[in-house]
Amino acid sequence: xxxxxxxxxxxxxxxxxxxxxxxxxxxxxxxxxxxxxxxxxxxxxxxxxxxxxxxxxxxxxxxxxxxxxxxxxxxxxxxxxxxxxxxxxxxxxxxxxxxxxxxxxxxxxxxxxxxxxxxxxxxxxxxxxxxxxxxxxxxxxxxxxxxxxxxxxxxxxxxxxxxxxxxxxxxxxxxxxxxxxxxxxxxxxxxxxxxxxxxxxxxxxxxxxxxxxxxxxxxxxxxxxxxxxxxxxxxxxxxxxxxxxxxxxxxxxxxxxxxxxxxxxxxxxxxxxxxxxxxxxxxxxx
Length: 286
What we know:
Residues 14-55 are annotated as: Disordered. The structure is a single chain. By secondary structure, the chain is an all-alpha fold. It has nine helices and two strands. The protein folds into two domains: 6-48, no CATH class; 84-282, no CATH class. Strands 1-2 form a two-stranded antiparallel sheet.
């Protein structure tokens, strides 16, 4: 958005600039005009009604400049609000990339000193962590849907609605029936969403407990004749990094909801007439 071309877009500024040039010319010929002015000219001037100045022409350059500054701040706040989820998304991607590098290095260190039993447990835990990642994302998205009041489509599409013959039933009774339909639909959506979140939370809880039991039983001392103590700390470090990465990826999974929410808000914004009059470079809407 370029506001430096604003001055060339408004007629008020052009009028002010033209007035300044006219004043300079009038100073040079002011004495000549006063000396040569005749009575007939005076009569014409007095008979001709004075043209009233438009309110726009009375605006000073400083006032216009202040209005432009205010407009620029409003546009900046508008863009910042509508793109904050994009900024957060890219910051999270950078964090995930850094953690992935550390996680890969930690896995290499663990692989060098892991006992056979420790490595087998790692292989057993790997698909469970992948499944936990999916369940955790689903639960996280569902809780955000409740927070944003954006139920999934299979719940939102349920709508109890049928036509009532108002030629038989009076208007008040028909309206009461319509209100009952809306209330039934609302109650169903609330109960369905509650049950949906509870089911996802239970799945996530059971799988989390199972993973914790596996981590607790990870060999730390002797392991069938092998010294397991050196491999425990690298595995714990690797697992913590993996868990941190999966949680960040769960946060990434809700950005489409944030985007839909922002789009729903911006669809209600009406661009001011002033902005529309500034030209193509100043339009907030395509």
